[in-house]
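A further point concerns the way the authors explain their paired sequence and structure data. The central task, working out the C-alpha cells from the amino acid sequence alone, is never made concrete. I therefore recommend that a typical entry be quoted early in the introduction. An entry of this sort, consisting of the sequence and the corresponding C-alpha cells, reads as follows:
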Amino acid sequence: MANQKPKKVAKKPSTKPEAKKEVLDAPAVQTACCAEPSLKGFFARKCDKNENVLTIFKSPRIWGALLGELIGTMLLVMFLLTLGMAQPLYLIFAVVAVYVVIAGLSGANLNPLITVGMMATRRMSAIRGILYILAQVLGAWIGLIIINAFRLGSGTVGELPMMAEVTGETFWAVALIELLGAIVIAFCFARTLRYVRKSPLTFGFAVAGAMTLVIVVATIVAQGYFGYVDSFIFNPAAALMYQILPTTADGFGELVSMAGLALAAYVVFPMIGGVIGFYISDVATKLSAGGYMCDECICDKVVEKHIQH
C-alpha cells in the first residue's frame, strides 16, 4: 500500500483564459476591420484584365449590354424632351424605371460622362467604354427622331425645350454649370455602384434623384443669375444630337467657333466633370477606409460583443 501511487484528480476546465484571450483579441479585430486609410492600389485595374478588342465579342453579353445602353439612353432622351422640368416628380419615377430595367443588362451608364468616368478610374475597359458611348449617341439620336416625329405628325407643332445658347459671353457660365452638375451626377453614380446588382431600386432612385435635382437646380441658377430661360440635360450624347450645334452664322469662321464653344461646354466639360466626380468618390472611399462604419462588419459592435463574451 505504501508503493501505491495517488490517483490524479481531473481538473475542471476553466473558461477564464479563453475569455481573456477573446478580450485581448478585440483590438486585433478592430485593427483588421477598421484599417488605417490608405491610397495603395488607388489606380489598380477594377475591370476584367482580359477584355480587349479581340476578346470582347466572344460572348453575346456585350450585345445585350449595348442594346441596353441604346434603349436606355433613347428612353431617357424621350422623357427629358417631353416631361422635362414641367413635371420633375414624374421625371424622377420615369428615370428610376429606366435605370432599374437597364441595370442588369449593362450597369446602366446611359451617359457618356459616366462611361468616361468609369474608364478613367479603370472600372471599364477602353473598348467597352467606346462601344457604350457609340450606343448612347445612337440611342439619343433615335429618341430625338421619335419625339420629333410625334411633334411634327400631331399637326400642332410645339417647341421642344431649348438648350442655353453658347456664345463668347455665355460660355464660361454654361460650361461651369455643366461641369459642376456632371461632378455631382458622377459622384452619386460612383457611390451607388454597389447597389447595381443587389438593390437596383436603390441604385435607380439615387441616380435618378441626383440627375433630376441637378437639372432643376441648374435651370433655376441659370434663370436667376445669368438670365437664361433654357434647359440643361447633362448628357453629352443627348446634347450632341440636340440643339447645341449652330446652323447659321455670319461666316464659316464664326460658325466653326460657335460649334467649338458648344462642344466644349456641353460635351468636353461634362466629361471632365464625370472623371472628377468618380475620382472624388474613390478618394473619399479610400480615405474613410470604406466608410464611417464598415460595410461588411460593424466594427464597434464586433468589439463590444467580443468584450462582453
